[in-house]
Amino acid sequence: xxxSLRQATILxxxxxxPRYVNAxxxxxxPTYDVMNRLMTGGQDRRWRRDALxxxxxxxxxRLLDVGTGTGDLARGAxxxxxxxxxxxxxxxxxxxxxxxxxxxxxVQGDTLHLPFADNTFDAVVSGFLVRNVVDRRGVLxxxxxxxxxxxxxxxxxxxxxxxxxxxxxxxxxxxxxxIPWLGGLVSGDAEAYAYLxxxxxxxxxxxxxxxxxxxxxxxxxxxxxxxxxxxAIHVGTKAGTKPDQG
Length: 246
Prior knowledge:
Layout: H1 3-10, H2 17-28, H3 32-40, H4 43-55, E1 62-66, H5 72-78, E2 85-90, H6 93-99, E3 105-108, E4 121-127, H7 136-145, E5 147-158, H8 168-187, H9 190-201, H10 206-215, E6 219-226, E7 231-237
Parallel strand pairs: 1-2, 1-4, 2-3, 4-5
Antiparallel strand pairs: 5-7, 6-7
Helix pairs in contact: 3-8, 4-5, 7-10, 8-9
């Protein structure tokens, strides 16, 4: 079976995707954190710390973690000890239930229709979210809407293996063979962990995602690769002047 045909049998259509992704994350919620640690060799924790650093939330500021899952980024922000108030929002109730802790507020909501007023947060961050939605620009536009002028929108995402990268074949073997096997072993749901790597292969390259951020009005956009280009942290700033922090 060709790779394109195999992907077509695994990936949902755009119309099916919201319901498919919601059901998939509901199934794997109990083992989600364990699989993240195993798949990345624990590096996902460092990537999240790096993403939070790029948020540049001021002392006593507010941060929104969209697609919070079990709340790693939201709790990580509050653990910085800078008086940061973090809110986590996720579409899938089971993910929230699996990770909820009293330190951070958790809200069930749609990333395309966030239940917050304009200019609410000093920064909005997401981890491995954007590739799971159909309307990427719509998501980024909504994240920018609830960010204060001068605040940052930060996206931590997996990226398709760069063409010509000598490690590309190794990444593809790991993504397409090892991860589904490991996911089936740990979570009992090999189908979910077949979707996840294929969604990465079909996702926007970092330069394209950066263009999406610029197209929704974010400025000073840049991205920082991690893990030999398999992951990237994307950063954009909302136009306007950041309030005096003094």
